[in-house]
């Protein structure tokens, strides 16, 4: 029943109310007991009086009128009693409705309370269950049995998978476990090793397997791991001992591995973008095709690391040690390599466009097929470097010592070689189109088959040079000394 359908309840100043609802007072019994006899006495007395004094026709009419008036008053009384009865019925219905509504509200409130109590009980039970599972699994990690520790790790992973709000805590626990001190097992023990030492080594081997499992769980749910990713997970493995671990294709983007020991670890194809690796030990690590873009490798040791095809674009490498590392086909676009020690480092077909190599010592290094386009190499040491088939288009090579270098088939389009030392330099078949070769001593430079289209050779000394097969179309030869030079007929435009 709506509020519009409720019985109307009006009250007058003389009608008492209870809780905002009108209440009819019962007619006192003495009013009824006294009122009826009085009315009868009045009627009888009036008739007796009229009969005692005689009644003519006019008086009879008055009597009839009085009788009618009396009957009318009686009718009014009966009507009033009927209205009062109707009003009493309506108020009774209203009281019953309000009682029913109160009962419904009470029942609803009771049901809601019961439901909330049940929900709270379920929540408390679930929380207790989660706490018990977490505590039990965490305790298992402290067991001296490898199988128990492994069971605890898998239990924690399952718990985190089912309860996202626990992932951060569980991730932190796994990271803390891996940051604990650890001594790796020896790969091979001498034949005369006693049994006790062998048993201790076996324990370390089992612990190493346990740590590998913990690491697998973290990387399995790390960034860039697709639907398995736990957004709440933050990987913090500062100074952790992860040497020799298998991290192939691991998803570690944005992780903190500063100071970690990753020597000999296999990180082939791993996603290490924006990873903190400051002061980390990556000696002999396998990083083939790994993504290290924008990674922080300041002060890291990468000696003899395999970085073949790795991406190191815009990585921070200040004071990193890359001696003996293999950076063949690696991408170091826009990377700052100033003052790095790259002795014995392989840079074959390495992409270095946009990198900063100022002041870098590349003496004797293998840069075969490397891309050094548009680089400022004025302060770079290239003496004895292997640059066959390298790309040096648009490079600034002013004043460099390039004597005795093998630059065959090298792309030097638009390069600036003003003031460079090119004595005994082999430029056979090199593309020097549009290059600046002004005022150079080229008497001992081999330029056979070189492409010198539009090159600026103004004032250069080419006396006695064999320029057979060289393309000098559009070359600037003003003040160039070509006395005794061997030129094909119609080869140069004066």
UniProtKB/TrEMBL annotation:
Transmembrane segments: 30-51, 63-83
InterPro entries: 5peptide_repeat (IPR001646), Pentapeptide-BTB/POZ_domain (IPR051082)
Domain of life: Bacteria
Keywords of this entry: Membrane, Transmembrane, Transmembrane helix
Biased composition (Basic and acidic residues): 195-210
Region (Disordered), start-end ranges: 1-20, 187-211
Extent of Low complexity compositional bias: 7-20
Keyword Transmembrane helix applies: yes
PANTHER family: BTB_POZ DOMAIN-CONTAINING PROTEIN KCTD9 (PTHR14136)
Protein name, entry field: Uncharacterized protein YjbI with pentapeptide repeats
Naturally occurring in which organism (per UniProt): Amycolatopsis roodepoortensis
